[in-house]
Amino acid sequence: MNPGEGGPPRLEIDADGCATVTLQRPRHRNRLHREDLRALQAQFARAAADPAVRLLVLTATGPVFCAGFHLGELEASSSEDAASADPQLFEHTVDALEALPLPTVARLNGGVYGGATDLALACDFRVGVAGMELRMPAARLGLHYYPRGMQRYVTRLGLQAAKRLFLLAEAVPADELLRIGYLDELVPFDALDAAVQRLAQALEAGAPLALRGMKPSLNEIARGAFDAATLDARVQACAQSADLREGLAAFAAKRPPRFVGH
């Protein structure tokens, strides 16, 4: 990695099963290049396939979380790389993050712009810092945003908040992001790691099978796209699981449960 230019995201997995993906282009406000999106997809897939991973935290280096897609690459459609690339690479990367079966947390160390607003919104929880802002400039660029991104905005924030963010294209301050539900928690920068850690510990205390079942069920219900048989299968899988037996036994014994994920 060139220290001046930065490079693709970094994936680290700790002993507690927390996977942390860190964007690494602070000089350019952590804008996302095609190579970064491909790296993110591979890292998401690796985390999903590892049974030891209990949750994923998405964060970045520097004072800005992410400036979104590298707009210079929008003009590169005639290049050999672009011709062979997925034309919906950004959308598919964000969808892959939302589809992860494990819980996800966005550690927003600074401002969030453009497509990065949807990347963070695809996470289950978002913790932001005082002084950050969000701006979705699609309307000022002449860009119609992709459908799944707009769907995430509407289902998570409501229609009027989505219209405000997309159509006005104004910078929205941190306290307002908390009010409209974009942020789950807003803290001073020096309290960010502790806030994320508290959230991670709460998620790690849950039964993996129940978390991996309820997360997609909630997202599907929110989109109006749930299948009753699929939801029932998830319910039955938990009802017949060793984790449920352990959870009930631990509750009766007044001790912490020791879940195994099945």
Task: Describe this structure in a few short sentences.
Helices cover 46% and strands 16% of the residues. With 262 residues, it is of the alpha/beta class. Strand 2, helix 1 (34-49) and strand 3 (55-60) form a beta-alpha-beta unit.
Describe the structure.
The chain is of the alpha/beta class. The chain has two domains: 7-204, 2-enoyl-CoA Hydratase, Chain A, domain 1, CATH 3.90.226; 208-253, no CATH class. 46% of the residues lie in helices and 16% in strands. The chain has twelve helices and ten strands. The protein has helices at residues 34-49, 80-84, 89-98, 116-121, 138-141, 147-157, 159-168, 174-179, 192-204, 208-223, 228-239, 242-253, and strands at 7-13, 18-24, 55-60, 64-66, 104-107, 111-113, 125-129, 133-135, 172-173, 185-187. A six-stranded mixed beta sheet has the order 1-2-3-5-7-10, with helices on both faces. The longest helix is centred in the first third of the chain and has 16 residues, at 34-49. It starts with 6 loop residues before the first strand and ends in a 9-residue tail after the last helix.
In CATH, the topology of the largest domain is named 2-enoyl-CoA Hydratase, Chain A, domain 1
Level of helix content?
40-55%
Mean pLDDT: 93
CATH class of the largest domain: Alpha Beta
Number of helices: 12
Q: Biggest β-sheet, characterized?
A: 6 strands, mixed
